[in-house]
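Example 3.2
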Amino acid sequence: MREAAFIKKNTDKWRDIELNPTRDPDELTERFVELTDDLSYARTFYPHAQVTKYLNGLAAQMHRGLMQNKREERGRFITFWKYELPTLFYHSHRLLLVSFIVFLVACLVGWVSAANDPTFVRLILGDGYVNMTLENIRKGDPLGVYGSGDQSTMFLQITLNNIMVALRAFVMGIAASFGTVVMLFYNGVMLGSFQYFFYERGLLLESVLKIWIHGTLEISAIVIAGCAGLTIGNSILFPGTYSRLTSFKRGAKQGLKIAVGLIPVFIAAGFLESFVTRLPLHPAASSAIILISAAFIIWYFIIYPIQLNRRG
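Structure, written as tokens:
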């Protein structure tokens, strides 16, 4: 192919690459491959021509763009946890409070219902679990359920189940937040009746020191997942100045980031429930784990976002 024909054939493509840069990694890579093919052809047939020098410079420019994009991608993980997620939570604190209030009210409903109806606990927790726990209490090990089963298998099952609960709370927000509220309420009622079951038998403190080793992170994460569901639900109910579809897309993206951000919390909770809760810990050690877990949740999801916003 003559040099003039080669230039005429590819001028529009080169001009688009030069004048309309992209930051999309896939498109950037595709463009770079095409450009290096053209450069290789030019070096073979027009080694001393101006077009070869031009393509060499353009390829070098794109190569720098690729390297910068890779550096940004490597730092993206840190940026997400250090800045993006906390900033998102700063703007979601109102919905986080709503989620917490719904869950707390549900816990009180569960406690009061269990106190006034002897069959309520069996209705919520199931006969199998109640009978097993009563048998464990008779044996002198009321929380023996946490000491049974293979630890690694238990860890995987618990972690995956908790992640699925969070994702369901997020997805159910599509029903204008109603589905998320129902899920929060059900889990709150379950927790309230569960704790009354032990209180009624004089085992409340023992159950708290045992269960909340992992429950502090687990229950907090469920409440935060409720915030993710309310985020997507409110984007449908209150689109503001956006179209409802645009608002929904924004809310879905924000809610999904919140739900994904909870995965490490659920992994930590699953580890504690599988490997630590079963241990015969001193009350001081149990209390320390519970307080450290609560302090982390309050700091990362409430205090740090506020501090970050003030600095910003």
